[in-house]
Amino acid sequence: MDLRFTPEERAFREEVRTFIRENLPADTRDRMKLGHPPRKDDTVRWQRILNAKGWAALSWPKEWGGPGWTAIQKMIFLEENLMAPAPELLSFNITMLGPVLLQFGTEAQKQRFLPRAANLDDWWCQGFSEPGAGSDLASLKTAARLDGDTYVVNGQKIWTSTAHNADWCFLLVRTDPNARKRQEGISFLLVDMKTPGITVRPIISIDNSHHLNEVFFDDVKVPVAMRIHAENKGWDVAKFLLGNERTGIARLGKSRERVSAAVSMAKEVNFGGAPLIEDQIFRQRVAQLQVDMKALEITQYRVVSAYDRAKGAGKPDPLSSVLKVKGTELLQATSELAVDVAGPLATPMWAQELEALNEPDELMEAGSAGTGGYLMLRAASIYGGTNEIQKNILTKAVLGL
Amino acid sequence: MDFEPSDDQRLLVESVTRMLSDTYSFAQRKTYMSQPEGYSPAIWSQFAEQGLLGLPFAEEHGGFGGGAQEIMLVMQAFGRALVLEPFFPTVVLAGTALNVAGTADQKAAILPAIAEGSLKLAFAHGERQARYDLTDVITTATRSGSAWLLDGSKTVVSHGEAADKIIVSARTSGDRHDADGITLFLVNTGSSGVARRGYQSRDDTRAADISLSNVAVSEADVLGEVGRGLPVIQRIVEAAIAATAGETVGAMEAMNEMTLEYTKTRVQFGNPIGSYQVVQHRLADMFMTQEQGRSMAMLATMSIDNPDDAARAHDIALAKVGIGQAGRYVSQSAVQMHGGIGMTEEYAVGHYFRRCMVIERLFGDPAYYLHKLAAAVA
Questions:
Q1: Distance from B174 to chain A by nearest Cα, in Å?
Q2: Are strands A168-174 and A124-127 parallel, antiparallel or unpaired?
């Protein structure tokens, strides 16, 4: 056991921090510091900068542009990137599609898609959930019928994040409606979003933003060459994708960034005639969050260092469900803190009309943007397998019930 | 970073676990509790034979040359077995005091005797009025010729009755709350003027109130610098927090295993209660809490040797809050999941509950450390 960072790891953190400080475009940084989500072009531009440095395809092998980092280094990078705050790498490309292609893709599929995914030349989205298939994903109905060397896809996906930005979609479809078990009739397809028959309809979420979509498939033709792995073996691919090294899911750096934003704002706002930062109850709330963030930080390093030791060959660590649950609880608690600090300034939408009326007011803008983040992060305990599903996983995997 | 125990550490855990599984069932433990000492002298000798009593001491003092990690691992095993013997006050508290502040002569005289099992120590710092405030010392030591005379009283001293020597803090200068002016002394419990009143603690171990009336202590038994006892006391407390954090992890593991087993066998409404999702999710929460607590025990352990005083104190405070809250949650949940049987003295889960409750308020509870952390928010 050596429970400290090595000098190399500390030097690495410094290198990452310096690179981000020197290369993150100022307009992106300013927007994100106020609590706004990155715009599409913020994310694309930053991922390309990172990719040019060889820092985008995080867990991919070096031959496919990966940085060749240990899992601990990767964790350090993700933390620093979130704390900056800088846009996150597009997870659909980097942590979902990439590893799936590396594990199951043909050489041609890898050649065609991996470099473009790393450089965000293609923006990918994930077509999994359906109106009737949420936590119970295997009950999905979107059907693909084989016609010569083409699948014809019909059905509907929902909660498809950033489908409106996407060039491509990885899609779970039912190819054998008569399979003995529901899981055995599912295939995994790559679909060009420009294919005729695809309709994307926005779903405006409670933060008033357009992030989610419904996607309709009406006789959409997908070449057989765009199938990953064998027909009717798509569930194995989906399980791999969902169980694959998900340590980044805790997004601890984001929680830390929210707390430091709240603390900064607490110096600016009033409570009983003094700055809120001087209030004991506020300080204790911050202290409790520091305790919980520290526990999660160590748990996270335990998971990734075990992953490093197993050289990624092990089964998914059930502790990653702990990371998901505790990480998202903290994202919610820390974004809630930021909203509570803003007080009445948390309520304006900061829509165009407000901007037109006011001189730039960073405090108000941060209050409003913080609320957007808080509202959006209510989804954190729902996406990626709800926290209730994570507890089911734990009861099965760890407790054997 | 590397969280895997070394081969030596693995062997240590295996041998301690094997010994405890042979000698320390819950039923056996009850017989140890009822011995006059409140623990088993025979088990104490076994600890000595296994080298556990010299775990953190240098090899020249008959020790094993171990550190905070070995202590954490052993305390974890002790936490699972609810060990009653005075390992914690003797090896962890007094051992740390001597390692940190002892002269070569003091170490040579005391550490080998601890390691071979012939000498037990206690750490008498807390006073009735002090609650968790480490500087609140009104016991006094005044010079008289070549000796010191100690007057005052110490309260809730873990295994104070069993100890052959106690490390006593006393004020040699300054006022009640001053950080400077506290001095540590090695006091033989047989000395004239030392009176001990022992009692059972809620965790089944023995504790004592100790009064000191004109107790003469020689200059050679001053531990550390005169008036500069507080930094040593802080090191002792930090070691105590790390060790009991490990012990809490062991207790949480035991409670979670018992609870899981119980929910598999207890049938209500025609099914084992573990088949009900509301029970399953509580168990998942208990498991997650245990793992977050384990991370905090590791944090405390990895912080102990950090030379940066402020950073070390901060990490220890984080760990103390986290492990205390974790132990409390798992304890309360374990009793709840057991239902009525969890409320009974004859069943083990309540004993783990009470040990965690006692640990939680050793040298400061979560509220106390949360307050310290809050003061540092910037």
A1: 30
A2: parallel
Determine contact: B1 vs chain A, CB below 8 A: yes
CB of A304 within 8 A of CB of A246? no
Q: Is A322 an 8 Å CB contact of chain B? A: yes
DSSP 8-state code for residue A96:
I
Nearest-Cα distance to chain A for B117, in Å, is 28
Contacts of A6 in chain B (CB under 8 A): 1
| Contact yes or no for A271/A344 (Cβ under 8 A) | no
Say what the pTM is.
Answer: 0.93
Nearest to B183 by CA among B145, B152, B155: B152
| Cα distances (angstroms) measured from residue A78 to each of A55, A83, B147 | 11, 9, 61
Q: Is A309 on the interface with B (CB under 8 A)?
A: yes
pLDDT digit string (tens) for B110-169? 999 999 999 999 999 999 999 999 999 999 999 999 999 999 999 999 999 999 999 999
Q: Do B281 and A395 touch (CB under 8 A)?
A: yes
**B194-234 confidence digits (pLDDT tens):** 999 999 999 999 999 999 999 999 999 999 999 999 999 99
On whether any CB of chain B is under 8 Å from the CB of A298, the answer is: yes
| CB neighbourhood size of B319 (10 A) | 29
Per-residue pLDDT tens digits for A59-115: 899 999 999 998 889 999 999 999 999 999 999 999 999 999 999 999 999 999 999
Residue tagged 């997004």 (tokens): A251
